[in-house]
């Protein structure tokens, strides 16, 4: 894989989490494929991948993600936590990821511009409801 440039990678990253099988024991690529089979869905199905994150991934990552939903803090700080502890990445493109996370947070909180020049306003209660809904379905 990758012309031998990364000999530790046995099966390349798939999906949202770029789940990878590695020579040092990670089997998240295979786990995603097996989970998809048990759910009678394709591995690339978005709902399946989100469900895998919460219910099919290894217990460590499931637990970490559920705890992550309870976090508060800046979008930049949360992006770094997610990058380091869930993605298992020590900081690749950290500043870019923090910038994008902050931009998305601002857009979600303040609303989105519409093609007609208007503004779609966000409802803080709705945003909290979505966060709560994600958390409730993670337990």
TrEMBL record:
A UniProt-annotated Pfam family: Phage_lysozyme2
Organism superkingdom: Bacteria
Domain annotation Phage tail lysozyme: ranges: 11-105
Listed InterPro entries: Phage_lysozyme2
Name of the protein described by the UniProt record: CHAP domain-containing protein
Organism: Streptococcus pneumoniae
């Amino acid at each position: 894989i990758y012309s031998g440039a990364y000999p530790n990678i046995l099966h390349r990253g798939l999906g949202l989490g770029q789940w990878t099988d590695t020579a040092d024991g990670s089997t998240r690529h295979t786990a995603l494929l097996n989970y998809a089979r048990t759910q009678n869905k394709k591995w690339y199905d978005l709902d399946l991948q989100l469900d895998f994150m919460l219910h099919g991934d290894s217990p460590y990552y499931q637990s970490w993600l559920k705890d992550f939903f309870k976090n508060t803090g800046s979008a930049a700080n949360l992006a770094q936590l997610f990058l380091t502890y869930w993605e298992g990445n020590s900081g690749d493109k950290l500043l870019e990821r923090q910038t994008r996370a902050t931009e998305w947070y601002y857009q979600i909180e303040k609303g989105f511009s519409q093609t007609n020049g208007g503004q779609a306003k966000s409802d803080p209660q709705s945003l909290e409801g979505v966060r709560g809904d994600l958390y409730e379905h993670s337990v």
